[in-house]
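Can't attach files on this board, so I'm pasting raw text. These are the components:
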Amino acid sequence: MKIFLDDEYKCHISNDGTMHEIEIDFFDGKCAAYVEGYRFIPNGERWVQPNGVIIRGEAALPWRDYSQLAAAQSGYDEADVKATAELADLIEQLYEEDLEMFDA
Amino acid sequence: MILGNPIMIGGGGAGDSSLAKAYAIILAEYPAGSTCICSNGAKTYVAGNTYGAWAFGVPSGGTWVVDCFNGTDYESSVSKARKIIEDVTQHSTHSIVLDYNLMLFDYENGGVVNDDITGGFKILKSSGSAVNIGDDAITFRNTDTSSYVMKILSNKSFSLVPYAAVGFLYNRTGTGDVYFGATTNGTDRTAKLPINVLSKAPEPEDTIIRCPLNSSAAHFIAMFGNTTPFNVTVKKIWLEYNL
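---
Top answer:
Structure tokens for the assembled complex are below.
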């Protein structure tokens, strides 16, 4: 998945023109709210925490409370399942209608 | 903590300041800048400075409690530590080290400590990997060529709210991916750690890796070995309190 990092290594799904792009699979299947609650430090780079502690990449660290990100992702997954189920119902309904037309 | 700081002599408060007359001596090291207090409930002594070390001459035996904290008092301080000494006898000397980190595994103290928090550690692994949780180290190595070969987790999940980071003291060979961090999933061997710091390079000398934490959900502390090859020895695992 392609994401964009700002100068504090916070993740974004769109680039405001000042960010740099990376391609990682850590966020595959994750919703925007989940991705944008993270800080991702690529391998070979370093992030200096406000308290001066250096975190070496690679690291995937929520800067928002992870429980909020997990809840957002769960909602996204449920909506996705519901949409998929509705689509399956629609296909089944069209199939049945086709059969009825064919029988007629 | 200031290591090598000379121990200051003191009896604290209105007590006798002569260690020679003391019933017993408690030598305390604590994070510099902190207040350190020694009490048996009836008597309380305060370290005479905040340099990080103090010798308490206590007047009686039994149980003594030594606290240190960064704040106005122990109960309200976020950064605090406590050690209880239950076996103070006449002419005995007790050396303690108070640290704001909450140790979970310590090769110098028999391996798993504070297991009321973690319940110890458990192993999820494939047949092609080797893991051992011993008294002096947690070792794990990959003899498999497939991915997601092993995970070592705390037995219990717990709230991360009080903690700013989890730290690991380790060394390793090989260049295979090893993740250190936390997860809400305590059963899936192959699931990625949602909070992690990756180790890829050989670290022949003991090295500290810290993983900042930010979650109000219950998590398992975890180590996750991915692709071949690596051979890891973890000597200490600790939680760092939010300051």
